[in-house]
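[Protein data]
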Amino acid sequence: MSAATPAEERWQPIVAELEASGLTARAFAAERDLNYNTLAWWRSRIRRTTRVSKTQTFVQVELHEPKPLVVRFRDRPVEIELSVDVEPSTLRALVDALC
């Protein structure tokens, strides 16, 4: 993908401001003394470029092993490490047995 032209670099923040403003393009252009047709053309071009960029973007994802569930008792020197997929009924029975 080619680098943005100076004109595109100038119009990108203007179009972003338009999108965030909640105004129509015509009202935004009038408020900022911009040519509506020029604004509409740049908005269309930037949207097209952004849409193509988004479809060509890859995101690296790192998967981490889930941390085990650790159960500590304040009044006992007991610490139990369980897998995160332990059945609730098993955990309940263990806690009941230790209490």
Residues 1 and 56 are 10 Å apart (CA to CA). The first strand starts at residue 69 and ends at 72. The chain has a mean pLDDT of 83.
